[in-house]
Amino acid sequence: MTLRPAVLDDLAAIMQLERRNFATDAWSEETMGTEIASAHNHYLVDVEGDRIVGYGGLRSLQGGSDADIQTIALDAEFRGRGRGRMLLRALIAEAIARGARELFLEVRADNPVADGLYRSEGFTELGRRPRYYQPDDVDAVVMRLDLPAWAAQSEQEADK
Questions:
Q1: Helix, strand, coil share (%) of the chain residues, nearest 5
Q2: Would you kindly state where each structural domain of the chain is located, as residue ranges?
Q3: Contact 33, 11 (CB under 8 A)
Q4: Whether residue 135 has a cis bond before it, omega within 30° of 0
Q5: Structural fold of domain 2-159
């Protein structure tokens, strides 16, 4: 597994994953390209050999107190191997490096695997946005992570 910053040349491969993972509510190629190119964002790709098998994105203004996980997706055959957690932790680390103290995200209420991953890293539920994901009428679970607490916990675990 290799994580590296996403570049616009990765857009076609990212969009293939985007459409497979989010069939009914995939972002457009234009939106994804804008996300990858923005200086306010940090997108990573997970590369296996010469193939992009995952990606994740963070929006975090340098010096801002909060940040948002925009998206995380993995090819189905690479799930359950810790790759999603590695992407998530790399995005968390980038948010901390940019000075954020809080990290937010939304997760589909019908995605217990992702919900479990986020909770296992310390995210807590703030509330729900009813019928947020369209056209599926699925609620979004809004979650928050206290970044200083996460960093302290990670440091304690590393010291063990």
A1: 40, 35, 25
A2: 2-159
A3: yes
A4: yes
A5: Aminopeptidase (3.40.630)
Pull the structure tokens for residue 122: 């310390």
- Compute the Cα dihedral for 54, 103, 27, 40 and give only its sign: negative
Alpha-carbon gap, residue 96 to 66, rounded angstroms? 9
Using one digit for the tens of pLDDT, what is the confidence trace for 74-115? 998 998 889 999 999 999 999 999 999 999 999 999 999 999
Q: pLDDT tens digit string along 22-37?
A: 988 899 999 999 999 9
pTM attached to this predicted model:
0.94
Would you state the structure tokens that stand for residue 39, as one six-digit string? 């200086």
Q: For the sheet containing 51-59, what is the strand order?
A: 2-5, 41-48, 51-59, 66-74, 102-108, 138-146, 124-133
Sign of CA dihedral 64, 65, 68, 69: positive
